[in-house]
């Protein structure tokens, strides 16, 4: 393989779905986790019971307990820069800040908060307000500042960020995902709607392995969205027939999947179900399981990357070189292994010290950003 094109690599990843499996982490008659979920640095999973009053904690050993209670409709969850858990109480119109032991530290009034996300580049926590279609910023001192509001936001709930810190916003009402480009919101994709339900809602979104992962609530499906291509989506799992069947992703079934969050390594995607309060896992997403499947059609893109897989030296040729472009390459855990402003149309990168796995390259200029994938053997 003497060249590796962006589109080829991106859709090569989609061809490895046969190794992905859905299993059930939580199936309880007395415990429901039906809304947002988040992982802490120790691998503990926290989940909201929107139709109840509790936020639960699941340890890596599978032990489930009530982390905090007394909420109205606990919704979004996020950890702040100090390791405190922020809880959005939607109908209660409050944000609550809790210590790592579950002690209530602060109460912050806000209109109908829904999704929460800590900015990867600061201690700011982004807050979405579903009913008011706006995004606010929560500062470490507890002060709130309105940031975005109005169209194209339409019942915005879910948020995620990519390796470069770019923010993606998901509209609950029309299932549209937009990306903040520094000055405005640009359209990325519309997650497919259910074929039979009147309520065509988008649940939450997350980012892992170069893709956005989204729950189509009443379609009973989980989708992968490729942000480098407009309206490029892939059905990961689920179908018209709702259920809780485990197994290969093509055969597994979900019932109103809602909350979604990735493991730190990106090998697992956790999903909650609004119906029944189940917590499910999509596993087998580890980058080192990706194979370099050959795709016959070579699409026209701006650069060549070869050899792929790479062993020692990675070659990159730019077809339309711009001196202002910056190249960043990150490992699957987000660690930057290469970053430099490009000074020529061709370059060679020493990859001999890289660990085996999949790496994401980001090519950025003043007005655009493109990415590619390369496998290190």
Strand percent estimate: over 45%
Q: Considering the protein shown, what is the CATH homologous superfamily of the largest domain? A: TolB, C-terminal domain
N/C terminus separation: 14 Å
Low-confidence regions: 1-18, 288-301
Helix content: under 10%
CATH architecture name of the largest domain: 6 Propeller
CATH class of the largest domain: Mainly Beta
Q: Globular, elongated, flat, extended or rod-shaped: what is the shape?
A: globular
Strand order, sheet with most strands = 22-1-25-24-23
Q: Sheet bearing the most strands, described?
A: 5 strands, antiparallel
Tally of separate helices: 1
What name does the CATH topology of the largest domain carry?
Neuraminidase
Q: Could you say which structural class the secondary elements and strand pairing correspond to?
A: mainly beta
What is the CA-based Rg, rounded? 21 Å
How many structural domains?
2
Q: How many extended strands?
A: 32
Average predicted confidence as pLDDT: 86
């Amino acid at each position: 393989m003497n060249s590796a094109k962006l589109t080829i690599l991106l859709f090569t990843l989609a061809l490895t779905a046969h190794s992905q499996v859905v299993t059930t982490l939580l199936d309880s008659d007395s415990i429901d986790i039906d809304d947002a979920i988040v992982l802490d640095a120790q691998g503990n999973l926290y989940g909201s019971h929107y139709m109840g009053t509790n936020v639960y904690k699941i340890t890596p050993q599978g032990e489930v307990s009530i982390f905090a209670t007394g909420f109205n409709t606990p919704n979004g969850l996020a950890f702040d820069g100090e390791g405190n858990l922020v809880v959005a109480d939607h109908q209660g119109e409050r944000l609550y800040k809790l210590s790592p032991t579950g002690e209530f530290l602060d109460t912050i009034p806000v209109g109908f908060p829904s999704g929460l996300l800590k900015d990867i580049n600061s201690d700011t926590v982004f807050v979405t307000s579903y009913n008011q279609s706006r995004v606010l910023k929560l500062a470490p001192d507890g002060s709130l500042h309105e940031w975005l509001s109005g169209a194209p936001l339409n019942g915005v709930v879910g948020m995620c960020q990519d390796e470069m810190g770019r923010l993606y916003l998901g509209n609950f009402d029309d299932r549209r995902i937009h990306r903040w480009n520094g000055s405005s919101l640009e359209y990325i994709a519309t997650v497919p709607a259910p074929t039979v339900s009147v309520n065509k809602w988008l649940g939450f979104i997350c980012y892992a392995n170069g893709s956005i992962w989204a729950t189509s609530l009443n379609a009973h499906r989980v989708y992968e969205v490729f942000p480098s291509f407009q309206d490029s989506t892939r059905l990961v799992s689920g179908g018209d027939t709702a259920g809780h069947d485990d197994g290969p992703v093509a055969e597994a079934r979900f019932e109103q999947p809602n909350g979604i969050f990735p493991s730190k390594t990106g090998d697992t995607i956790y999903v909650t179900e609004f119906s029944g309060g189940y917590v499910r896992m999509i596993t087998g997403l580890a980058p080192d399981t990706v194979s370099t499947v050959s795709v016959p059609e070579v699409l026209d893109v701006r650069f060549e990357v070869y050899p792929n897989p790479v062993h020692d030296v990675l070659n990159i040729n730019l077809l339309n070189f711009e001196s202002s472009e910056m190249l960043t390459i990150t490992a699957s855990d987000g660690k930057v292994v290469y970053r430099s402003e490009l000074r020529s149309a061709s370059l060679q990168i020493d990859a001999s010290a890289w660990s085996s796995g999949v790496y994401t390259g980001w090519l950025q200029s003043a007005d655009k950003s493109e990415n590619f994938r390369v496998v290190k053997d």
